[in-house]
Amino acid sequence: MKFNVSRACYAITSISPYLILGFCVLFGTFSSAETAIERELRNENVQLQFRVEQLQAALANQNSCKSASPIMDPIVPTLLRKLSILSDALAVARYDSGERDMILPDSLLQAEVPGQYILLLAQSGSPLTDPLSIALEFGLQVSAIRYVYSDVLNGFAAKLSETDRARLEANPRITKIARDGYIFATQSSGSSEAPNSSETETNIIPQPTSPVDVYVFDSGIRAAHIALQGRVGTGFTSFRNGIGTEDCNGHGTHIAATIGGRVYGQTDQARLISVKVLDNANYGDVSTLIAGVEWVLKQPGDKRLVNMSLTRKALHPPTESLLDIAVTALIDAGIPVIVAA
Question: How many CA atoms lie within 13 Å of 312's alpha carbon, on the beta-carbon side?
Answer without folding.
Answer: 26
